[in-house]
Design goal:
Layout (H helix, E strand, L loop, with lengths): L15 E3 L9 H9 L4 E4 L3 H10 L6 H6 L7 H9 L23 H19 L6 E6 L6 H10 L4 E5 L6 H9 L4 E4 L2 E2 L8 E4 L1 H5 L10 E6 L2 H10 L6 E5 L5 E2 L25 H5 L5 E4 L5 H9 L4 E4 L1 H4 L8 H12 L5 E4 L9 E4 L8 H6 L11 E4 L5 E4 L5 H6 L13 H7 L27
Parallel strand pairs: 1-12, 2-3, 3-4, 4-8, 6-15, 8-9, 9-11, 11-12
Antiparallel strand pairs: 5-7, 10-14, 13-14, 15-16
Length: 459
């Protein structure tokens, strides 16, 4: 058995890294378009199992999913995925998508098939038809699908893995192990777990393949960070090589790093960032690792300024989120662009919205979950589960809860009721924002949540 094409080399480091936004906002079309220009196109790795299942459930318009699956190198996997999820006639508008497996420590074959195949498909399509590097972006906070996701992306020859929303110091060594075809494991963060407790997610490439695992090229690893302290931790305490940093400021979209120190809010009830949150770029440069600046960096003079400060370039998200090739729903793009042209669009850095506990930047747009009335009318449910947190049950086993699930259920699982206030279902909202929202049993569609950086004001 042979793996995918080896990662592609750069004649020079890219000056522009395209952000890995949302759930498939940074999809394969956008990443391919950016990479074709010689910059680094990036696909979002979050929730790709759901994205593939739902695209197949819609009948696979254009046949792109099936074309990529036809190249999947491990016999039987693509056939099982298609048999389970492909609906040739699609589904009715008022019908729901077939539920996908919830993330779990002890994963099923069906779950691993879907996760590995989904990451392979997105990277394969992004790399198709050109010879330039492509990256994939993950969140450290979403741990359960990480190992099979990395394997699937590496099977497709992904060139760079980017990860933020936490301290991903175990990922470089994991990439080394997967490249050698070895079993790998990842420590799962568990609320209230004692220092002697250890819960692990495991993945064995050979067992998945049903024989020996293929040797794969090890992609570069870029850590997404917000401070020189985190840069130093990643550079000195990671279990493998860190090849780059993306230094993300609080004006970037999606999840933001919380302010350092005790949380204080502005008059608008947004997290207050101060001098302590400004990274020391000179200290980071001394680590000798290339870095890119992110957050309101879309103007040419900002690229020039970043390079003058020692950066290899900049990462851009919002400008790409509203271009033709992004996966964001066309109607959302049209409405936001029209309001941006009139200087009428605003974002709110919501300290409560995301169940991760990280501040989450939300575009204020009618008919989305940013509207308080719309949010209040939604019945709470947790049927995607990407952002659930692990906790230890009375019998010592792991349980799972999400501050965005029904309040009674969260409290019954030992969660504090105050943690549920203002929490939104980011999983379902982001899927709805790309036209893959679930429909409940009464025929009511999930409503979107739209995240963008501050640059949306004049995108």
């Amino acid at each position: 058995m042979t793996g995918a094409t080896s990662p592609r080399s750069w004649q020079a480091l890219p000056r522009i890294v395209q952000g890995g936004m949302g759930v498939a906002v940074s999809g394969w079309r956008l990443a391919q378009a950016v990479s074709r220009t010689g910059q680094l196109g990036v696909v979002a790795g979050t929730g790709l199992d759901l994205v593939l299942a739902r695209r197949l459930g819609l009948g696979d318009p254009g046949g792109h999913m099936r074309r990529a699956l036809a190249h999947f190198p491990i016999p039987g996997v693509a056939e099982r995925v298609l048999a389970t999820w492909f609906q040739p006639e699609g589904k009715a508008d008022d019908a729901g998508f077939r539920p996908s497996p919830m993330p779990a420590v002890n994963r099923s074959q069906r779950s691993d098939d879907l996760v590995v195949a989904a990451n392979f498909v997105e990277v394969f399509l992004a790399r198709e038809g050109h010879a330039n590097p492509v990256g994939i972006n993950f969140l450290q906070k979403i741990q359960l699908p990480t190992l099979p996701s990395l394997f699937g992306a590496m099977l497709a020859g992904v060139d760079v893995v980017l990860m933020g929303a936490g301290i991903p110091k175990d990922i470089p060594g994991t990439l080394d192990g997967l490249a050698r075809g070895e079993p790998v494991e990842l420590r799962i963060e568990v609320a209230d777990a004692g220092p002697e407790e250890e819960h692990l997610s495991r993945f064995d490439p050979a067992a998945f393949c049903g024989s020996s695992a293929p040797a794969l090229a090890r992609p570069r690893f870029f850590a997404i960070i917000a401070s020189n302290t985190m840069a130093r931790v990643m550079a000195t305490k990671s279990n493998g090589t860190v090849d780059g940093f993306v230094i993300e400021g609080p004006t970037a979209g999606g999840h933001n790093a919380p302010p350092r120190g005790r949380l204080k809010l502005t008059d608008k009830q947004e997290p207050a960032y101060g001098a302590r949150d400004v990274p020391d770029l000179e200290a980071i440069a001394k680590l000798g690792i290339p870095f890119w600046l992110a957050g309101s960096q879309a103007e040419p003079e900002q690229l020039t300024a970043a390079r003058a400060q020692g950066a290899a370039g900049v990462q851009l998200g919002t400008a790409f989120a509203y271009c033709e090739e992004s996966g964001l729903d066309p109607d959302i793009k049209r409405r936001v662009l029209a309001r941006s042209a009139r200087r009428e669009v605003e974002t709110f850095t919501d300290p409560l919205a995301s169940p991760t506990g990280f501040p989450f930047k939300v575009v204020q747009l009618d008919g989305t979950l940013s509207d308080a009335t719309t949010y209040a009318e939604r019945s709470r449910r947790c049927d995607v589960g990407q952002l659930r947190h692990a906790y230890t049950k009375a019998d010592g086993s792991l349980g799972w809860r999400c501050a965005g699930e029904p309040v009674d259920a969260y409290v019954r699982k030992g969660g504090a009721i105050e943690d549920t206030v203002g929490r939104k279902c980011v999983c379902n909202g982001l899927l709805a924002a790309i036209g893959l929202g679930q429909v409940d049993k009464h025929g009511n569609p999930e409503l979107p949540i739209v995240t963008s950086g501050n640059d949306v004001a004049d995108v």
